[in-house]
Amino acid sequence: MAILEEVVTPFITLTADEVRGLVKMGGKSEQFCRQTLVVLDQNQDSLPPSLKLEEVRRDLAAFDAIRPRLLRLLEVLAKMQDTQTALGSDVLMASLEGYALMKMFGKGEGLEALRQAMAVRRPTKAAKVVAAV
């Protein structure tokens, strides 16, 4: 993780408001941008100095370099999220089963307060899950 954090040190962080304020390049607009850059490249002598074509080229190259890495990271993150979801499900199912057993054996006194707290936190789902047990 430290290596990954070191790699992304030069990357920027945007607030939610900043993200909302940006014009975002999607699939269709990406093709427009690429084609426009080709035309601009062919007509550099007509461009005002304020249009920094070289800077735009560097941005596009960085954009292209980040994409495959981002896709790989998203795949890794999806696997991690799926694994955490499955592990959490296993723990919850075992806990519910254990709760039902303790209740059946008359040893669920200490667990009743936890069940009620769970029902307060998630009234509809918790009530259905506990009722099923």
TrEMBL record:
Protein name stated in the entry: Uncharacterized protein
Taxonomic source organism: Zoogloea oleivorans
